[in-house]
User: Fold this.
Amino acid sequence: MTQKIGWFGLGSMGLGMALNLQKHLQAQGGRPLRYSNRSLAKGQPLEDAGAISEKDFESLVQGCDVIFTMISNDEVLNELLSKALGSSISLSGKIFIDTSTIHPDTSASAAERLAEKGATFIASPVFGASPVAAAGKLIFAMAGPAPALKTVRPFILNVMGRSIINMGADVRKSSLLKICGNILVISFMEVLSEAHVFAEKTSLGGAQLEEFVGNMFGPVLESYSARITSGSYAPPLDQGPGFAAALACKDMRHALSIAKASGTTLPTTEVAYERLSRAREFAGECLDSAAMYGTARQEAGLEFWNENSRKGNE
Assistant:
């Protein structure tokens, strides 16, 4: 608990993860978490919990031994690392651990760039939506040098995550697993969307379908179904999505480009990407990754909005 831990990125996932980490550090008598974000106001719950804010990423890096990031895309990570690498801060011995979904090439590049300055990079994307992050039950897919993995493990297991999948030393592997996992998640949402539209058009009913999904396939797929039936695929503007459609499209672009480069295809992902892109064009960016359901409804002659969605009762 003598390590000085930092956190950058306080979106819907990052804030819950950072709060759990700060509570753990406090309970163990460790140094308080230091945090930063593009909008520091989002860190007020962390400050209330005893964490300490830093004005920018460079200040965070300078004052910490281990720096976690949870950011929106590859470009943001590259920008942050360029700031750290271009500063006069000594990075020797520091560990950078990114929990975002980024391209394997970005992970490899980050590891190489940091190694030149004596720092270590761990690629550790997580599986689970924001409620799972808040509950500290995420799955971490971790790759990097073994000594660094051992160092950060106590800050993750039973703190922010329920399990760790050790992907070895090659940081590309954890990014590949995360992208492959997202292929499955997006495909589940696409198939469930099609099934729900089928149920509506045939008068079968969504409630009975959802009950069957839960009984047959378990609570995870039932929760995915509920994102459709509850209207969460198109939430109120002041509520925001659980997993933004824009981020899901970014992840699908990564998957499709890797598949093409590897000589394979992802037909279901292609359909989901096209439908989700059209949903964003139609309804804006306040959409969940399940919003391909709205497009599937339109293709079947229904309104984009179901009765529980943002405009369903208008």
Strands lie at 5-8, 34-36, 52-53, 66-69, 95-98, 120-123, 126-127, 138-142, 161-166.
